[in-house]
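Action item from last meeting closed. Structure (221 res):
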């Protein structure tokens, strides 16, 4: 079994990025303009934080843009080479971006609202570089950061159906990380609210989450 990757999302400052990096996160989520949800920061702030992230850690730009032109323009404004597309865009958007911006890595979010999520994965086929399963409701302009857990049985089916690596998000925390890994077998976990307290990103909660993931990986090896 390969190591489960961890993406810490909703990073809002260089100090929060430092906490995530020190704990060993593989990727950081930087949230662009959204109709709802936590962690939104200005494009200039995204660019500033992303510019301080050392390789091989990857900064992800969460974008609510729906067109290839809008997504590409947002990525360029932020100096980002990996985008997390939070809407169920037309699969042709990926084809256009692949042709016009082959340097741009694309992570397609799939909001698991019911049993049809694996079929939606199939619509995209191998166009994205990765998928991310979340608990939003696109019809209500709720595009992530809900802190809700969706049906992990459906998520596990999505992982089996996907031609690309799959991240799992939605309602994760240090107490259920191991169960998520055992049940869903994702490529990576993506967490936001589960490692935060009233003061913001919690060093203790991030450390506990990372420890839970490493322990689960060790048990499965």
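Sequence:
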């Amino acid at each position: 079994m390969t190591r489960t990757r961890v993406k810490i999302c909703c990073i809002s400052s260089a100090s929060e990025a430092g906490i995530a990096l020190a704990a060993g996160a593989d990727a950081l989520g930087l949230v662009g303009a959204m109709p709802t949800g936590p962690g939104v920061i200005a494009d200039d702030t995204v660019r500033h934080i992303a510019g301080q992230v050392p390789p091989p850690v990857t900064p992800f730009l969460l974008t609510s843009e729906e067109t290839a032109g809008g997504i590409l323009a947002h990525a360029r404004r932020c100096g980002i080479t990996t985008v997390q597309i939070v809407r169920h865009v037309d699969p042709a958007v990926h084809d256009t971006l692949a042709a016009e911006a082959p340097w741009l890595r694309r992570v397609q979010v799939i909001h698991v609202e019911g049993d049809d999520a694996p079929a939606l994965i199939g619509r995209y086929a191998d166009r994205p570089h990765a998928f991310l399963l979340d608990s939003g409701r696109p019809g209500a302009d709720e595009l992530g950061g809900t802190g809700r857990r969706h049906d992990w049985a459906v998520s596990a089916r999505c992982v089996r159906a996907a031609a690309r690596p799959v991240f799992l998000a939605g309602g994760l925390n240090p107490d259920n990380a191991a169960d998520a890994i055992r049940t869903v077998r994702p490529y990576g976990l993506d967490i936001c609210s589960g490692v935060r307290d009233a003061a913001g990103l919690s060093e203790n909660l991030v450390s506990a989450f990372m420890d839970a993931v490493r322990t689960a990986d060790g048990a499965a090896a």
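Note appended to the action item: The chain has one domain: 5-220.
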